[in-house]
Amino acid sequence: MPAISFKNVSKTYRGGQVRALDGVSFDIAPGEFFGLLGPNGAGKTSLISILAGLAQASGGSVEVMGHDVVDDYAAARRALGIVPQELVFDPFFSVREALEIQSGYFGVKGNGAWITELLENLGLADKANANMRQLSGGMKRRVLVAQALVHRPPVIVLDEPTAGVDVELRQTLWAFIARLNREGHTVLLTTHYLEEAEALCGRIAMLKTGRVVALDRTSDLLAGRASTMLRFKTDATLPPAIAAQARITGRIVQVKAHDAAEVETILSTLRSANCPVEDLEIGRADLEDVFLEIMQGATQ
Amino acid sequence: MSAIALQGARTLFYKEVLRFWKVSFQTVAAPVLTAVLYLMIFGHVLEDHVKVYGTVGYTSFLVPGLVMMSVLQNSFANSSSSLIQSKITGNIVFLLVTPLSHWAWFVAYVGASVVRGLVVGSGVFLVTCWFAPISFAAPLWILVFAALGAGMLGALGLIAGLWAEKFDQLAAFQNFIIMPMTFLSGVFYSVHSLPGLWQGVSHLNPFFYMIDGFRHGFFGVSDASPWLSLAVVGTSFVLVAGIALELLRRGYKIRS
């Protein structure tokens, strides 16, 4: 039985004029660390919303641990812990009160020891009695994670959990989530930080305009696409032939090369154009390169 | 309802009570003060000029009316303001992802509204009862109409909170529907003192029956039979509760 199962899920808005999801189907096995990637507007949030019961699918079905999210919503939601994308909080309560209340909604009481463990593992122990309004953005994000985990769900959904948070929280959060994953929890992650997805996710699905355009093991995605990237810095204007295929971030230029001959061709083109480069390196393509290649391919 | 579901509903009820209790200066003390000011002003001006039901002094008549008005307005305010705040700040997501059924939402929100209405109503009564002699002719009617009225306004607050997308819309609901229906229900006067047409119009207002039935519990006399009032208020409550439950079941304006 899959931990999460999407079967031909579609979602339309405004009477069918806007199609956010178009026949999305895939399963996530128990214990997987799964990444759901896609550009803005790809349908990630719509899919997560349907999974969480925040939205209803226009077609298809979704199951969590074998429970349909509509017909058997109570069991499905008890198996899910959702970390929402928006930084929301209830200003009336302290951190511990918020966690106790969230726990109670799921029918769980007397789990003070687990709440204390969550607070300690997420670096919130000294903020337990602070009002939510007094916390920084990063601290509020930690509380959102704790609220999602407070009823010990077997499936955890993290919807861009590290958007706009500092390095310390990222490390604390990923260490804790990785531990939960090792202990058997299934994790579904959506993120725009592709290096995080590459490092953490065993399998990845990529969405574009509501359709799955890639679904594979992370290692296979990396191996099956452009294997070599040429990276360098330059202040000069690139020759048009290079500029057309390069990814440029400030002074950093990255150009795809499939083999050594192609690397040599690129370098000779740069030399001929008198384009000085520094910090030149040749490396394997990372997930960002694969992501862009797949998204461009899906456009064509 | 299973034990787990019951615990969930109980937690939401507790959270809603805690929410208003944490700001009780605003949610309890302020409406008590407002009611006392009404009593002092209207009572002072009209005490020597108006007798109701032949023997009841105006200030005595006013006390139950003000108590019930406070019960109704605060019950409505509790559920409606809590929902709209959660919707606008986005923290309603904490509830939407839980296994709580629409029944659990209804029982918890309306239950907490009833508690706030009764707490404020008791506060108003405890402060105002010193201003005039008060009797308790039929205490059971007092409890029945206070609870039913608070429940109906709590459910109406749920509907308004679900419907409104801005504080402005909620204020319009409160100012253009709840306030007029409350003020024109006989809080400050007996409908028998009105011209025939307006007596008839008043009898179409379910709030009139809530206040009239509630007042019957104090004086043993009222403009309408308490049984008729019970029938009207009970039917209204069932109707409003049914609408609120259906909106919650559909996830009206809270699930897309």
Strand residue percentage of chain B: under 5%
Q: Which strands sit side by side, in order, in the main sheet of chain A? A: 6-7-8-3-9-10
Q: Strand order, biggest sheet of chain B?
A: 1-2
* Domain unit count of chain B: 1
Number of H- or I-type helical stretches of chain A = 11
User: The biggest beta sheet of chain A, please?
Assistant: 6 strands, mixed
Describe, in plain words, how this protein is organized in 3D:
- The complex is a heterodimer of chains A (300) and B (256).
- With 300 residues, chain A is an alpha/beta fold.
- Chain A folds into 2 domains: 4-222, P-loop containing nucleotide triphosphate hydrolases (Rossmann fold, 3-Layer(aba) Sandwich), CATH 3.40.50.300; 226-284, no CATH class.
- Helices cover 36% and strands 28% of the residues of chain A.
- Chain A is built from 11 helices and 14 strands.
- In chain A, the strands form 3 sheets. A 6-stranded mixed beta sheet of chain A has the order 6-7-8-3-9-10, with helices on both faces. Chain A has a 4-stranded antiparallel beta sheet with strand order 2-1-4-5. Chain A has a 4-stranded antiparallel beta sheet with strand order 12-13-11-14.
- In chain A, β7, α6 and β8 form a beta-alpha-beta unit.
- In chain A, α3 runs parallel beside α5.
- Chain A is globular and about 70 Å long.
- Chain A starts with a strand and ends with a helix.
- The mean pLDDT of chain A is 88.
- By secondary structure, chain B is mostly helical.
- Chain B has one domain (3-250).
- Helices cover 75% and strands 2% of the residues of chain B.
- Chain B contains 10 helices and 2 strands; from the N terminus they run ααββαααααααα.
- Chain B has helices at 3-21, 24-46, 58-89, 93-96, 102-128, 139-163, 167-183, 196-202, 206-219, 226-250, and strands at residues 51-52, 56-57.
- Chain B has a two-stranded antiparallel sheet with strand order 1-2.
- In chain B, α3 (58-89) runs antiparallel to α5 (102-128), α3 packs antiparallel against α7 and α6 packs antiparallel against α9 (206-219).
- Chain B is elongated, with a radius of gyration of 19 Å.
- The two termini of chain B are 26 Å apart.
- The mean pLDDT of chain B is 89.
